[in-house]
Write a structure and sequence with these properties.
Elements lengths: L1 E4 L22 H13 L3 E6 L30 E2 L4 E2 L6 H18 L3 E4 L2 H5 L23 H17 L4 E4 L21 E3 L2 H12 L7 H9 L7 E4 L3 H4 L6 H6 L15 H20 L3 E3 L31 H4 L5 H18 L8 E6 L4 E6 L2 E6 L10 E2 L31 E2 L1
Parallel strand pairs: 1-2, 2-5, 5-6, 6-7, 7-8, 8-9, 13-14
Antiparallel strand pairs: 3-4, 10-11, 11-12
């Protein structure tokens, strides 16, 4: 299991998120202790690094380090990110490469991190930074004059250095474009990342919850989004991320159950249709994302138990409020609240992979995408996954094809989390092989 740390705030305040730069985040020694304790529990710890841009801060950042605007950055408009209001590195400069590469080595050797999630890789790789640009997957979108070849060279250098000097290191690219070769070795002329974040998946789930009725969910479109990755390049699948849960938007659970999360999440209160549907879909969305979406699975803080609210850091737009700068971990610890069922289901998913190792298996074989029944069936690592997304219909003795004959007992480890089975009505009943 892996733990990804964003050591500093989500907007780069100083150069490349130097750790523990402010007392409110703790000292470097305390960060070292955090990593050591995580390692003692068998966790692999990745650091979120921002080498895609840097703050305009002149007082304690890199901007105008030598009195000019071009010491580490491009000059003119090329050195400014119009959406992030930040500076953009000039990766053709020797000192920029030295600074960024030494930054990575510093984290590895001083804090003993196990790898990195590279933030904003799409912005790095293209002169348009992905702004107002859609990607269909055609090669013409990647091999043209819009590509920043200096940035690609830096990413190759960074991955080659890390994997050569620190065998076993893990690197993950935050890229929405699907650049070919992102997750192939540098020796094959790839960028050298181990994984790419499957960023289209959480966007798809939020789009369905915001804009579509349950009856209108398209099974083929869901499956396509979940398996849309390049052959031989591993991705990390996730159902929810900071992009959906920050700055006034809603978490998956909040989109599903909305205001009833404040009044009907107690086990002693009535299980309303809204909460029943919301909890069932929350489990199904997570499990199908994990089973079909990639070679790794990521859960955003609180998503594992259906956190009800968004994250919002103090800023001018909210009058510098700390009210939503929190995660309410107490909710999952309260035995009288239904959050414990969602959390137990998440634990069951992790144990299922631990027992069967399906995330390391090749991409699943999809045997059914039935639009009228709203049923999706696929096989992976000897497991048969069957999902019924129909909002009103259940099926008895539903016949599905399987690769190998024999008995298929329910593999889900409900013995460790029996309560997770509650409120899961959309499951097929009596599914059988043929």
């Amino acid at each position: 299991w892996h733990l990804t740390l964003c050591v500093c705030v989500s907007t780069p305040v100083t150069c490349c998120r130097l750790p523990s730069a402010y007392s409110r985040f703790g000292t470097p020694a305390e960060l070292q202790r955090l990593v050591d304790v995580a390692h003692s529990h068998g966790l692999v710890v990745l650091l979120d690094v921002v080498h895609s841009h840097a703050s305009k801060n002149v007082l304690d950042g890199l901007n105008q380090f030598d009195g000019t605007s071009t010491c580490y950055f491009h000059g003119g408009g090329r050195g400014e990110h119009s959406l992030w209001d930040s500076r953009l590195f000039d990766y053709s400069k020797w000192e920029v490469l030295r600074f960024l590469l030494s930054n990575l080595r510093y984290y590895m050797e001083t804090f003993r991190f196990d790898g990195f999630r590279f933030d904003g890789v799409t912005s790095m790789m293209y002169h348009h930074h992905g702004i107002g640009t859609g990607f269909s997957g055609g090669y013409h979108e990647y091999f043209n004059m819009n590509v920043d070849v200096d940035a690609l060279a830096y990413l190759m250098l960074a991955n080659d250095m890390l994997h050569t000097v620190y065998p076993g290191v893990i690197t993950v690219a935050e890229d929405v474009s699907g650049m070919p070769g992102t997750c192939r070795p540098v020796a094959e002329a790839g960028l050298g990342f181990d994984y790419r974040l499957a960023m289209a998946i959480p966007d798809k789930w939020i789009k369905y919850l915001k804009e579509e009725r349950d009856d209108d969910w398209n099974m083929g479109n869901i499956v396509f989004t979940l398996i849309n990755r390049r052959y031989g390049e591993k991705v990390i699948a996730y159902a929810e991320s900071h992009d959906q849960a920050l700055v006034g938007d809603k978490t998956l659970a909040f989109w599903l159950m909305d205001a009833e999360m404040y009044s009907n999440m107690s086990v002693v209160s009535e299980l309303t249709p809204s909460v029943d549907r919301g909890m069932a879909l929350h489990k199904m969305i997570r499990l199908i994302t994990m089973g079909l979406g990639g070679e790794g699975y990521l859960t955003f803080i609180g998503n594992e138990f259906g956190h009800p609210e968004w994250l919002d850091f103090p800023r001018v737009g909210n009058n510098e409020s700390y009210h939503y700068a929190r995660r309410q971990w107490n909710l999952v610890d309260d035995s009288l609240l239904r959050y414990k069922f969602l959390n137990a289901f998440d634990r069951g998913m992790q144990l299922l992979d631990k027992q069967h190792d399906f995330l390391s298996a090749p991409q699943a074989y999809i045997s059914r995408k039935h639009e009228d029944d709203k049923v999706i069936v696929f096989e992976r690592q000897g497991l048969v996954f069957i999902f019924n997304f129909h909002p009103t219909k259940s099926f008895a003795d539903y016949t599905v094809g399987v690769h190998a004959g024999g008995k298929y007992p329910p593999p889900f480890p409900f013995d460790c989390c029996a309560a997770a089975a509650l409120s899961f009505t959309p499951l097929l009943s009596g599914a059988r092989k043929c």
